[in-house]
Amino acid sequence: MNDASSQSLVPTTGVMRGQVHVFPIRVYYEDTDAGGIVYYANYLKFAERGRTEMLRTLGIEQHRLREESGMQFVVHAGEVNYSRSAKLDDVLLVETSLIELGGTKVVMRQAVKRPASGNEEIASFQARVVCVGMNGRPTRIPDQVRDVLQGYITPSET
C-alpha cells in the first residue's frame, strides 16, 4: 500500500549545494502582517531555521551536542538587510554559508531568496554564533564539531 498513512513523513532539512546549505520555506498566513507581507522579524526565524538545519544536515544535532558536551550555540551578534518583500504563499530559499570559524565562534552569512523571481535576494544576514557552556560563558568549539565545520568555510565576499 502506497498512501500517506503508510509512508514515513520527515520534515526537510534542506540540502548542501557545495558549501552552501539551501533550506526551502513557504510563507504562511501566520508569517505575514495585515497586508499579506512577511513581518520583518519573521525573517530572523527563517534564518534560525536555516542555521539549525545546516548543522543537522552536517550531522550536528544541537540537543545531542548540549547533552554530550554541555555546550550550545547562541547568536551573539547579527546584522540584517532587507531589500524586497516576501508575500503570502511565496516559496523562499534560505541559503547559509559559513564564512569564519574561530576558537569559540562561527560567522554565518545567510540570504533569503525568491526562486520564482530569478532568485532575487529578499533579505541578507550575517550572524556571529558563539559556543557557550552551561554556565553561559564562551567555550571552545569541540574538535569533532570544528572538524566538520572546517570543510564548509567559504570566504566572505565583503
Description:
This protein has 158 residues and is α+β, with helices and mostly antiparallel strands. It has a single domain (14-150), classed as Roll (Thiol Ester Dehydrase, Chain A). Helices cover 20% and strands 36% of the residues. The chain has helices spanning 42-57, 62-69, 143-150; strands spanning 15-17, 20-26, 71-82, 91-101, 105-114, 120-133. Strand 1 and strand 2 form a beta hairpin. The radius of gyration is 17 Å and the shape is globular.
Mean pLDDT: 92
Spatial order of strands in the largest sheet: 1-2-4-5-6-3
Beta-strand fraction estimate: 35-45%
Strand element count: 6
> How many domains, as an integer?
1
Determine the N-to-C terminus distance.
53 Å
Overall 3D shape? globular
Supply Rg.
Answer: 17 Å
The CATH class designation is: Alpha Beta
Point out poorly predicted stretches: none
Report the sheet with the most strands, covering strand number, pairing sense and barrel closure. 6 strands, antiparallel
CATH topology-level fold name:
Thiol Ester Dehydrase, Chain A
CATH superfamily: Hotdog Thioesterase
Supply the number of helical segments: 3
Keywords:
alpha+beta, 36% strand, globular, 158 residues, 20% helix, 6 strands, 6-stranded antiparallel sheet, Thiol Ester Dehydrase, Chain A, 3 helices
Compile the SSE list and pairings:
Layout lengths: L14 E3 L2 E7 L15 H16 L4 H8 L1 E12 L8 E11 L3 E10 L5 E14 L9 H8 L8
Antiparallel strand pairs: 1-2, 2-4, 3-6, 4-5, 5-6
